[in-house]
Design brief:
Blueprint (H helix, E strand, L loop, with lengths): L4 H5 L8 H34 L6 H4 L6 H6 L9 H11 L4 H14 L12 H12 L5 H8 L22 H18 L12 H8 L22
InterPro entries: EN-1/SPM
Length: about 230
């Protein structure tokens, strides 16, 4: 007797592994839900063109846009019952500054000499929590930023301020950490240890010269946007 769709339609869980299987499924579903919003625009472009017998792959779609009317026409099946929600997403993609910010981010990624980070779909706080849970020791957002540019939260990695640029997957991470640390000591004194504190909004603003292209210099997802506006 199968008690859920996962058991019935796809595979059977070996006896004794039910708890682990559900934990894996829950983790996968959380990532899928996050990615749905990220992938929705690209999929809409693919689907819209497919309906007109035009083949567009996902890589090509990331560089394309649709008009507002075309996006609305390409509403995905999982959003069909919530057209007002889809309209909110479409309005965001059609905003005047969205295309410029999207392209700026894409160009920045192309200039990177390696992967941007190992967070995956995790926010910086979620990465820190996952790293801490795996080791039983808490870390702050400064350390989380550094470690996320070394490896996954479950990897055997540690932060050392003496590490050279080669210790990071992308040289830009080392530059960010170095400039942040320098500015932090200018603001709070030479005895200030960035490792002992979460990322500081004022320091981030000073180190990055403000908020550029709609993002902070580092730790964008954890900076208080109310206190530190552009």
């Amino acid at each position: 007797m199968f008690h859920n769709k996962m058991d019935r339609d796809f595979y059977r869980i070996e006896e004794g592994y039910e708890g682990l299987a559900r934990q894996v499924a829950r983790t996968a579903c959380q990532k899928l839900v996050k990615d749905m919003m990220y992938e929705a625009r690209t999929q809409a472009i693919v689907d819209f063109n497919a309906a007109k017998n035009v083949r567009v792959n996902r890589k090509e779609a990331t560089k394309m846009t649709l008009t507002k009317e075309e996006y609305l026409e390409a509403i995905p099946w999982w959003m069909a019952a919530h057209s007002e929600c889809w309209k909110v997403l479409v309005d965001k993609w059609c905003a005047e500054d969205w295309a410029a910010r999207h392209e700026a981010c894409r160009q920045r990624r192309l200039l990177m000499q390696g992967p941007s980070h190992h967070q995956g779909s995790l926010s910086l706080n979620e990465y820190a929590a996952k790293y801490s849970a795996a080791r039983g020791e808490p870390i702050n957002t400064f350390e989380a930023f550094a470690l996320s540019h070394k490896g996954k939260a479950t990897a055997e990695i540690h932060y050392n301020p003496e590490d050279p640029p080669e210790a990071y997957i992308n040289p830009s991470a080392y530059s960010c950490l170095s400039s942040y640390s320098e500015v932090a000591k200018e603001v709070y004194g030479q005895d200030y240890d960035p490792r002992s504190h979460d990322l500081d909004g004022e320091v981030v603003m000073r180190a990055g010269g403000g908020k550029k292209h709609g993002r902070y210099y580092l730790g964008d997802s954890v900076i208080d946007t109310v206190q530190h506006s552009s």
